[in-house]
């Protein structure tokens, strides 16, 4: 797998590069600003882009802007963004759940949003890299927790879910499969399927066969305005 890295902190950039290289992947470019990142992606056409959200010159959301542009222009490139801050908006924008998103972005998998602290757990970080590179979805648990807590307070349907169903809902939003959810919660995959079915019914969500669409549907629901009707 060929990877491009965008990270303005030199030590962190080199650390990520070393971890990925040791895992057997090829880092074809590692750069420190948004302009260089965009050029590297266009030149190298990697399998995966890993980028910080805040990058020079303004240290706002240049990395996210590049990531969104890559998802529109090169849907075959998987994208994993890193941030120091919990921002549910970033996850929703990356997944194409915002209103008016191009159909291509809405349908494409291969996307992740992780807090930088996750990199310290190397094995977990590498597992998320593999998941995203394979076309899956990886959303940071802290981001999901914020969204679920907000929805629980603002939405009677989420508030009416059982504690176990909310646990399953959160893991669904992170991009976990039914098997992975079962292993995490120490319940059978059959039990997970039953919980998922009841969650879909309670939230009036469409049943999604595709894993990415399932994550997208859940995050769309969790990010909707209080009082808005589910779609």
From TrEMBL:
SUPFAM superfamilies: C-terminal effector domain of the bipartite response regulators, CheY-like
Domain annotation Response regulatory: ranges: 2-131
Alphabetic keyword roster: DNA-binding, Phosphoprotein, Transcription, Transcription regulation
Keyword DNA-binding: yes
Source organism of this protein record: Leucobacter luti
One GO BP: regulation of DNA-templated transcription
Name of this chain's protein: LuxR family two component transcriptional regulator
Residue numbers of 4-aspartylphosphate PTMs: 52
Residue intervals of the HTH luxR-type domain: 154-219
Residues that span the membrane, as ranges: none
GO molecular function, one term: DNA binding
């Amino acid at each position: 797998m060929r990877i491009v890295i965008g990270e303005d902190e030199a030590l962190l950039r080199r650390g990520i590069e070393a971890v990925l290289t040791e895992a057997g992947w090829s880092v074809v470019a590692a750069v420190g600003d948004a302009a260089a990142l965009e050029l590297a992606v266009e030149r190298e056409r990697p399998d995966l882009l890993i980028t910080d959200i805040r990058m020079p010159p303004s240290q706002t959301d240049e990395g996210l802007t590049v990531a969104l542009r890559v998802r529109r222009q090169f849907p075959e490139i998987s994208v994993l963004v890193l941030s120091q801050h919990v921002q549910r908006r970033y996850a929703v924008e990356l997944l194409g759940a915002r209103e008016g998103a191009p159909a291509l972005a809405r349908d494409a998998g291969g996307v992740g949003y992780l807090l930088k602290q996750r990199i310290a757990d190397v094995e977990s970080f590498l597992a998320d890299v593999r998941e995203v590179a394979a076309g899956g979805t990886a959303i940071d648990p802290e981001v999901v927790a914020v969204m679920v807590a907000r929805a629980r307070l603002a939405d009677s349907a989420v508030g009416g879910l059982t504690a176990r169903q909310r646990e399953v809902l959160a893991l669904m939003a992170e991009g976990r499969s039914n098997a992975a959810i079962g292993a995490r919660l120490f319940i059978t995959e059959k039990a997970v399927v039953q919980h998922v079915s009841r969650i879909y019914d309670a939230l009036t969500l469409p049943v999604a066969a595709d894993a990415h669409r399932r994550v997208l549907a859940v995050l769309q629901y969790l990010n909707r305005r209080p009082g808005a009707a589910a779609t």
